[in-house]
Request: fold
Amino acid sequence: MISGSYERSGPPKRVHEVYDEPFGQVVTKGWNYPLKTDVTASTVGRRVKLTCHDSFPHKLTTWRPGTAE
Reply:
C-alpha cells in the first residue's frame, strides 16, 4: 500500500512553452503549483519512506496556433 500527503510549498509558477512538432507548432500555457510531499510504502510488514522530487500539480492549456485556444 502507498500512502501519503501533500501541501503547497511555494507560489505558483507560470508556464509558457512553444515547441515544434512534425505538423506545426504547439503552445502550452498555464500554472505549476509546487508541492511538499510525505509518502510511504507498506508491504510484507515493512514500511519504507519514499522520496518524491519536483512534485507539482498543473493547470495547463495546450493548442496549435491558428486554432481556437
